[in-house]
Design a protein that fits this description.
The complex is a heterodimer of chains A (334) and B (345). Chain A is an all-alpha fold. Chain A is 75% helix and 3% strand. In chain A, the strands form two sheets. Chain A has a two-stranded antiparallel sheet. A two-stranded antiparallel ribbon of chain A has the order 2-3. In chain A, a hairpin with a 5-residue loop joins strand 2 and strand 3. The radius of gyration of chain B is 22 Å and the shape is globular. Classes of the chains: A mainly alpha (334), B mainly alpha (345).
Chain lengths: 334, 345
């Protein structure tokens, strides 16, 4: 039983290692810290929001609004920094408060109105995108000197690779996420909600607080991801980050988290992000393949992992039934 | 009350909203309701609403049936892109119009059956099952068009599907009206609609009572794929080309919104095709109204978000019980006054 819990995660790990071996055997240059550093930097914003998505999906929900919230964060920062003399750090704090409150509000609607998360966060997606359109429809560059200071921070890895600030932020978020999911009461509540809502309620899990907390966390991380994205692109654009929610969901599923909730690991999501990054890097190295192959391969991987999860569930159901039959056949032995 | 048909009575909120939006549009642009015939085709803002709303209306037909089974089909926008790409590449490589249409519809049907198989046979959650095609679909469409926007300016027969007219009506309008009538007749003049609703209420229970839920689920997703295919052909014919990146982009969300506005519950179990058509028309008249008013089209999203929020509050179980209590109170009050009158007499 213990093994089947870790099997999707192990499958993800095997896929990652195989993919890396294939990449290296075709392009030996990909085995360098420079490529690894770039991979982490390029996917930093996706990784951060995927951590939030992992919690949402673990609880049996979904958050479609994250892409729009990332765009909103970028637009908000660029407009505030252009039109006022507020220091970026203060602006960061402001936008994080806004996005966290936005997520908490969606969590509240989901719990108190008892509506499917899908449609509530769909409204959130429209709202956040609409507000960023209202702020500006242009791509606004961010030229604050503090931004270039932040962009220049990096740790030099052996082999000349650069671990940039935003990559470090992502790694920290993943570390905190793993601790939060595995070692805190909140994490246990999240797993309990995703396992079975009614049992969780009966066991005394504070469902209202946890639901609001989960979506607030996802909103906060989407805001942080938006800050990282604005550092990455040095601009705010209301059409940015379209479809990021799908990439994040894909990373979570490829990472072995069950979409029905209750099973999965934040660490798996990290592997999911790395696999997506590898595919992109391979396509860049190859040069002749078009970028849309990324989408097709991710779709195939999604299907593969979902089919694997189904297969595992069938097997565990069948073994449970066999056990029941066996114990029914020999009632006296017990 | 007897004179009003049930359909009107059941859909009063939608009709009122539609009427209000149309009236607002007429105030904003005085010529809104004027319709004239030019070159053997009706022209006017109202016709334009019917015409521009065709893709969402078509998607909403399939989506209604899918949602009635407690499912959802996220892939319809991507299927539109795939089908547009298939139609464009078939017609530019010299196939005849019937062959092109048959090929395009077949591809849409195949996409729908793929989704249906994942949901019905592999028991995968509908959101996830259709997410696969939503993610991969645009990539597949790009694969077919080889990364360019395939245009077919020199193929009037296919362009006719998008911008031609028949009996003075634009082709897209005729296509969606015919398909809608067909769908309503099939599901409501047979037991099919009831069976679909039964699956939405409780799939296990309906399977146990003899409903072949697998076949019906498969069929429902296949119909959704087919509707998306028709919408895809119209969208491609309208712009005289297949744009794999933008064809049908976010239309799945509009279609879901249309279905929800129409009064079909996302929790499955009951549906109204007429309601969904009204929902699609409401969305389209909003879009047109915002354009006519000179507002930036970006306002659309905020208005849509507000509409979803209102519907959520109205549909939520919490406010439903509040409403039921209110009605029960009124009834007991009425009974009390009645009995008091009796006593007085």
């Amino acid at each position: 039983m213990k093994n089947s819990k870790y099997l999707p995660l192990m499958a993800t790990f095997v896929v990652f290692v195989l993919a890396y071996i294939i990449c290296i055997s075709v392009f030996p240059n990909m085995l360098s810290t420079r490529v690894a550093g770039n991979l982490l930097t390029d996917n930093a914003f996706l990784g951060i929001t995927a951590v939030g998505m992992t919690f949402v999906i673990l609880s049996g929900g979904i958050d479609l609004s994250v892409g729009s919230v990332i765009a909103f964060t970028g637009v908000f920062l660029s407009v505030v920094l252009r039109d006022t003399s507020i220091h970026p750090l203060v602006a960061f704090a402001m936008v994080l408060v806004l996005t966290t409150a936005f997520g908490a509000a969606m969590g509240g609607v989901i719990f108190f109105l008892d509506m499917p998360p899908f449609i509530v966060t769909l409204a959130g997606m429209f709202l956040a995108r609409g507000i960023s359109y209202l702020l500006t429809t242009d791509s606004v560059p961010i030229t604050h000197p503090f931004y270039s200071t932040l962009q220049d921070i990096f740790i030099r890895m052996p082999g000349n690779g650069r671990l940039t600030l935003i990559a470090i932020i992502m790694l920290v978020v993943f570390a905190v996420g793993i601790v939060l999911a595995q070692r805190t009461r909140f994490g246990t509540y999240v797993y309990a909600l995703g396992g079975n809502l009614t049992s969780a309620q009966l066991m005394g899990v504070p469902v209202a607080k946890t639901t609001i907390g989960i979506y607030a966390l996802s909103g906060f991380l989407a805001g942080l991801s938006g800050i990282v994205f604005s550092l990455y692109t040095s601009a705010g654009y209301s059409l940015a980050a379209v479809g990021v929610e799908l990439d994040a969901i894909a990373a979570v599923v490829i990472g072995g988290t069950l979409l029905t909730g209750g099973y999965g690991f934040v660490a798996g999501t990290f592997l999911g992000i790395c696999i997506q990054g590898l595919i992109q890097t391979y396509i860049v190295f190859d040069g002749t393949l078009s970028s849309w192959w990324t989408k097709i391969v991710i779709g195939l991987l999604l299907f593969g992992f979902i089919a694997l999860q189904r297969g595992l569930m069938w097997m565990s159901e069948r073994s449970a039934r066999n056990k029941r039959h066996a114990s029914a056949a020999q009632p006296s032995s017990a | 009350m007897m004179a009003i048909p049930t359909i009107v009575r059941e859909r009063t909120p939608q009709l009122v909203v539609l009427a209000v939006i149309l009236a607002l549009n007429a105030i904003i642009s005085p010529g809104f309701f004027s319709i004239e015939i030019q070159n053997g085709r009706l022209y006017g803002s109202l016709i334009d609403v019917l015409n521009r709303g065709a893709p969402v209306t078509l998607l909403a037909i399939g989506m209604t049936l899918v949602i009635a089974t407690k499912g959802i089909d996220l892939s319809v926008g991507a299927v539109m892109a795939i089908v547009g790409a298939v139609a464009a590449s078939l017609i530019t490589s010299g196939y005849s119009l019937p062959a092109t249409l048959a090929g395009a519809l077949f591809v849409g049907l195949a996409c729908g059956i793929w989704n249906g198989a994942l949901v019905a046979l592999l028991d995968i959650q509908p959101i996830i099952a259709t997410l696969i095609l939503m993610v991969a679909g645009r990539g597949i469409a790009q694969l077919i068009t080889e990364g360019v926007i395939l245009t077919f300016n020199d193929k009037p027969e296919l362009i006719f599907v998008g911008s031609g007219s028949f009996l003075n009506l634009p082709m897209p309008v005729i296509i969606w009206i015919v398909l809608a009538i067909l769908a309503i007749l099939v599901v409501r003049r047979s037991a099919l609609g009831l069976l679909i609703e039964a699956i939405g209420v409780n799939r296990r229970a309906s399977t146990l009572s003899g409903v072949n839920s697998r076949v019906i689920l498969l069929a429902v997703y296949a119909v959704s794929g087919l509707c998306a295919a028709v919408a895809g052909v119209i969208a491609a014919a309208d712009i005289k080309g297949a744009d794999a990146n933008n064809a049908g982009l976010w239309l799945e969300m509009d279609a879901i919104l249309a279905v929800v506005i129409g009064g079909t519950s996302l929790l499955g179990g009951r549906f109204s095709l007429i309601g969904s058509l009204m929902g699609a028309m409401i969305i389209q008249s909003l879009n047109t109204g915002i354009l006519l008013a000179g507002f930036p089209p970006e306002f659309n999203l905020i208005i849509k978000a507000a509409i979803i929020l209102i519907i959520l509050i109205v549909q939520s179980p919490a406010s439903q019980t509040a409403m039921a209590n209110f009605r029960a109170n009124r009834q007991t009050m009425a009974i009390k006054t009645e009995s008091r009158e009796h006593a007085a007499r």
